[in-house]
Amino acid sequence: MPYCEILTTTKVEKAEEMKLNHEIARIIEQIPGKSERWVMTHIQDETRMAFAGTNAAPAAMITVKTFGELAPEQYDMLTKSFCQSAAQLLKVPSDRLYVTYEPITHWGWDGANF
After folding, report:
1. What pTM does this model have?
2. How confident is the model at residue 48 (pLDDT cuts 50, 70, 90)?
């Protein structure tokens, strides 16, 4: 049940949003036990943000919430994949992007908790 939120200064057209949703699911599915069936995304484009004191170039913030902790190598893999995808699909250079992770211990769905 990963939840992935992307805030970006760039404009994301509807077709690109669909590609981005599929790319996020593809990245998440590299983690054993995670599947597209459980991935929720939130993409907020044309967000005002500055990075390193300037808003003159594209920037983005990606937050990934997971049910439980991941292994350190999984975080490394996710960061690398998200940075590559952001550069390709959002046109945001990896040095103008942060990726954060929030492991969640209690996660509710369909009237119950995991």
Report:
1. 0.92
2. very high
Parallel, antiparallel or unpaired: strands 112-113 and 40-44? unpaired
Q: 22, 35, 20, 112: which is closest to 66 by C-alpha? A: 35
Please report whether residue 1 resides in a domain.
Answer: no
Longest dimension (CA), the chain: 45
- Tens of pLDDT, residue by residue over 51-69, are 999 999 999 999 999 999 9
| Structural domain boundaries enclosing 78 | 10-54+71-98
Burial, 96: exposed, middle or buried (Cβ in 10 Å; 0-12, 13-18, 19+)? Answer: middle
Structurally, how many domains does the chain consist of? 1
